[in-house]
């Protein structure tokens, strides 16, 4: 049973995960960040000790959970002192084999959600995508995951990579389309607030339907008159014009 | 005061608008559609007479509301018999001047929302964007709009065109990104359901924040390693690869 957890990292993922995992007999016993400020801030939220030195990480945790930047992970793992312990990373895009050089007990604990300082999502509803190097290690992290989420999913590294790619479209890219819409409105003295109900409804519609079934708009109808007028309106915004062109093409191809 | 309304059109917009506008002393007194089936279906929902002949449209309505396809509007207007009456269209992309050939009292009544048979949005929360050819006509449709929505907005034809363009990004294009995500998951035997909480949260985050403030993901961090791996994973899907490329570029440019 996993009771004592050390969090390696103090960014958005570490913060939300740390809050979700602590309590009910489980404890974050230490937080590590190379930034003293981040370490102190998260340690205060979780009411636990912190360190900025990998060498000072406690040896008695049941799980070391790595929520650091993808770019930093390999180097942090290299310097991490407790090679026999159970370790897990939280990244969508890094294969589990990153642990193979040096570790015996390892897993992946990937929350499929977007975390930011501004909002606190409901963890019970967040899919946790798990993978482990042995059935015993899988059971350990599965039990931990089931304590915080109702949507625990097994996904191997290849599936997780695809999940992450799909999430980039459905979340990161979608948010950028919101930004483009906000930018167009701002340039014409219209408030972003006017679009918020539409954004909510667009996301709500696919909660009970597949998105291809509820597609609407000029591209779906292949209404070239509107499409041409929109492309003309975007003439001074070449990045947006390219995005308009290729999403429109893709909608037209998909609907055939 | 507008009490009696004839609906010209029987698609999704006409259906939702008809339901929202009838009741509390206001009545849909007739529905027109060139399709007998659509006319009958909506007339049944609204419990009112219907016709498939423009010549048979009643003369005694206070408002004739046109919710037909953009492509069909000009021809329907040409054949419409009651040129003195107050008429309004519901299109985001057609300028009000479409009425100038032949009509004296005209307006635009544009609901900024996505309508489909599968879902019933809450009308009170839907922005209604209004424009009229005289202050008196504006007041008439404004009073009608305020009976159904708490978000009544004045927008001239130029602003409405920009609103519609912004809505294409925030709704139609966003839904296509969901479709791409669903397609990627399906190709790897993963259910779309796993993405639904992420989609909800992505839309929820911008209800209280501007989207540029809550952008996340590999493009924002300009993580070329992940971006290259994603582009490689999309090699067999050129439409998706182009969309990935140009949204990523735009995010990188925006964050500079």
Q: How would you describe what is shown here?
A:
By secondary structure, chain A is an alpha/beta fold. Helices cover 44% and strands 14% of the residues of chain A. Chain A has eight helices and eight strands. In chain A, strands 3-2-1-4-5-6-7-8 form an eight-stranded mixed sheet. In chain A, strand 7, helix 4 and strand 8 form a beta-alpha-beta unit. The longest helix of chain A is centred in the C-terminal third of the chain and has 31 residues. The first copy, chain A, is elongated. The model of chain A has no long low-confidence stretch (mean pLDDT 94).
Task: Present the secondary structure layout.
Two copies of one chain form a homodimer.
Chain A: E1 4-8, H1 12-21, E2 27-32, H2 36-46, E3 50-51, E4 63-66, H3 70-79, E5 86-89, E6 105-111, E7 128-132, H4 135-148, E8 152-154, H5 157-187, H6 196-205, H7 224-233, H8 238-254
């Amino acid at each position: 049973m996993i009771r004592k957890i050390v969090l390696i990292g103090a960014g958005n993922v570490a913060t939300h995960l740390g809050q979700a995992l602590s309590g009910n007999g489980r404890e974050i016993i230490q937080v590590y960040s190379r930034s003293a400020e981040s370490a102190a801030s998260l340690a205060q939220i979780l009411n636990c000790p912190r360190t900025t030195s990998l060498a000072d990480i406690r040896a008695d945790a049941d799980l070391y959970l790595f929520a650091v930047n993808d770019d930093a992970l390999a180097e942090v793992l290299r310097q991490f002192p407790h090679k026999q312990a159970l370790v897990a990373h939280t990244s969508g895009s890094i294969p589990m084999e990153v642990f193979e050089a040096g570790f015996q007990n390892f897993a992946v604990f990937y929350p499929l959600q977007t975390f930011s300082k501004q909002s606190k999502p409901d963890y019970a509803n967040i899919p946790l995508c798990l993978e482990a190097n042995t059935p015993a290690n899988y059971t350990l992290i599965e039990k931990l995951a089931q304590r915080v989420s109702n949507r625990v999913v097994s996904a191997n590294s290849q599936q997780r990579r695809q999940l992450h790619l799909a999430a980039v479209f459905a979340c990161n890219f979608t948010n950028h389309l919101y930004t483009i819409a906000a930018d167009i409105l701002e340039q014409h003295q219209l408030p972003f607030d006017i679009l918020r109900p539409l954004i909510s409804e667009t996301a709500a519609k696919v909660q009970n339907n597949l998105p291809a079934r509820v597609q609407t708009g000029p591209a779906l109808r292949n209404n070239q008159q509107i499409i041409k007028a929109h492309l003309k309106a975007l003439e001074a915004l070449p990045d947006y014009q390219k995005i308009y062109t290729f999403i429109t093409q893709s909608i037209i191809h998909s609907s055939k």
